[in-house]
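Reading a protein record of the kind used here takes only a little practice. To see the layout at work, look at the sequence and tokens printed below.
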Amino acid sequence: MADSPKPPLDMNDRARAVFRTLVETYLETGEPVGSRTLSRTLTEGVSAATIRNVMQDLEHLGLLGSPHVSAGRIPTQMGLRLFVDGFMEAKDINGIDRSEIERNLSATDQDMGDVLDRAGSVLSGLTQGASLILSPNIEAPIKHIEFVSLSPDRALVVLVTADGHVENRLFTPPAGLTPSAMREAANFLNAILEGHTISEARSIVTRQIDARRQELDALAARLIEDGVALWADQSQDPDRLIVRGTSHLLDSTQAEEDIARIRQLFDDLERKRDLAHLLDLTETGDGVRVFIGSENKLFSLSGSSLVVSPYMNADRKIIGAIGVIGPTRLNYGRIVPIVDYTAQLVGRLLTERH
């Protein structure tokens, strides 16, 4: 999940208790929650009038909304985000759910496809949502690659292999990487990837980095020998070339051309390094993630939430992902451990079969 935000400073203990109870009640019933309902539910004796005042304060904070003037309140997307990250208690999967998952996935004669099909079916049955299965990574030649920005700290890479297989992997992009930069990276990769795997693509980019580095060093060495430039302090910035006074350039058209070429090489070297980093990120991932409403650009139009977790092989390498798509009022406290446990079990079973 995302980094846990702290509850707003304006929320005292009573406001937190009202907020937590209201969200838990809403997630259970799907109905707006009124002050009278909360006054009967809260362990601390608080009047309905006091609760109404607290609910108004929470609404001003953007955590609650009211679908109708006379109705109770429901959590906003911001409120659900705060609840999931700051209030929801992380629990272990309950015994009934665990047994159901193990029973469906325990057959020893299942191949990889059967394991994933059964995992999707059991997730749908237990959560009453739509399951999402991202197949294990296949080192087949890549036909096409696309990067999709989901949020400032989350992106999706879509890989289409030569045999028609499609893989989707979630990753955290480098800070400041814009959607246009992702498109530019995808265009470059598509130009060099055809017939190569992701691992081979990384080797190609690495060789290009080395070639640029050697050409840069050779040009810089000539300028340094002529007294036109010198390298900056290597401990501070190994890729910074300081060009001395322009008087040195008046008698040397060659030096002027070399400096222009060096600028191009620096730019190209930086782009290639960013590209290599992006390739590395496509093969990494993290634990269970919860995307609520518009945080998930793929499903935001339907007002859905996505709970997703990667599964790993014996080397702790991400080989796929599994998740559940449902309404924003998912029972997150129950579904998060279900998705987490299913992903762990799928990873273990696929590792045993290989």
User: Anything to note?
Assistant: The chain has four domains: 13-87, 95-136+285-353, 142-198, 214-279. The first helix runs from residue 13 to 29. The mean pLDDT is 75. DSSP finds ten helices and eleven strands in the chain.
